Amino acid sequence: MAQDKVKQTRHADDAENAKDEILAQEDGAGTTQESTGDAAELQSCKDELMQMKDQYLRARADMENYRRRMQREKEETVKFANEGILKEILPVMDNLDRAIAHARAHEEQGSSLLDGIELIQRQMHKVLEKYHVAPIDALNCPFDSACHEAMGQCERDDCPPNTVVEEMQRGYMLNERLLRPSMVMVSKNSVEKNRDNL
Residues with Cβ < 8 Å from 173, sequence gap 6 or more? Predict the structure, then answer.
């Protein structure tokens, strides 16, 4: 009977051990499933973090580009803010140039009226220089469509073709940007010279 009791105890212990083993295996399987789930969640978080970091870097680069563009536009606005009023002043300069040319052609050189007009012209040139407006030198230069506007051609044998031979209206640059083109007459070969070349 004592042996039977020992056998029953052993049998109960074996059953308990088997139960513990089964539970341990189930816990191990659960832990494996949990660790697989944790690894997948961790990878998902890493992917999301990388995506957010990429979006942050792109947004930061966009903001930096926007800031630079706004700075350039602000500088351009300041640089060319007076363009409208300066364009209005240029016809006054043209009239001063015409008055001086007419006075020189019809009056003596020492005239006080001519001296006064030339003084006004110099003052106007100083005002334009202060705002970075510079006249375009066109006369006797090769024709350049970027800063000259051809009003016509005239036959000339004393200069190469496509040379500015007459300036009808002076052009101006504002901060190295065209404010107004020069209106010019451009030379071309005479008809006789063209026949000789044929």
Answer: 133, 134, 135, 136, 147, 179
Name which of 128, 135, 140 is nearest 182 in CA terms: 135
The C-alpha angle 180, 181, 184, rounded to 5 degrees, equals: 140
Amino acid identity, position 40: A
- 3-state SS class at 113: helix
Concatenate the DSSP letters of all residues of 153-170 into one string. Answer: EEE-SSS-TTBEEEEEE-
Q: Which pLDDT value is given to residue 34?
A: 61
Give the side-chain half-sphere CA count within 13 A for 156.
17
- Name the helix (H) or strand (E) containing 172: strand 172-174
Residue 191 CB partners (closer than 8 Å, separation 6+): 155
Closest CA to 194 of 166, 134, 153, 139: 153
pLDDT digits (tens, 9 = 90+) for 151-161: 999 888 888 88
Q: Which CATH architecture has domain 132-198?
A: Roll (2.30)
From the list 75, 119, 78, 112, the residue with the least C-alpha distance to 96 is 119
